[in-house]
Amino acid sequence: MLNEVLENIWRMEIPLPGNPLKSINSYVIKGDDRHLIIDTGLDMVACEEAFVGGLAALSVDLHDADIFLTHLHADHVSLLSMLPPLGDSRVMIGGSDAAFLRAWTGWESVFEIAEAHGFPVHELRAQAATTPSSSSRRGSSRPWYPWRARRC
Fold first, then answer.
1. pTM confidence score
2. CATH of 2-148, one of 3.40.50.300, 3.60.15.10, 3.40.47.10, 3.90.550.10
3. 54 burial level (CB within 10 Å; 0-12, 13-18, 19+)
């Protein structure tokens, strides 16, 4: 669903299938030559279809847009892993999230920290394996974290 919030500022509702949040808002600020996209969605086909469809309806080409990620939650960033190469487009995120991404070594470090603080790691692993986004990637070799392939 698209609606114009203010002149040249559009809200795209991106569905989150299987998620109690139901959807996120992605925004597009249309400029004369370049556009700014704010947040993307999960790395799921339904999110990709809504995102790409919304951009097409607005006549926005990803190569003419930069992306700003408001925060490092999968429902806001992981759709980047499904998008085509962005060429010279910039992907921007706040400093503390960017530092986390630069230091990222994978989920094992998260599990180690959880275990060190008394969290039952088997429960965390089981939960991580059942999230809608991770279940859509089963059998896929592509990572959910796009920052290894994209500039921050």
1. 0.77
2. 3.60.15.10
3. buried
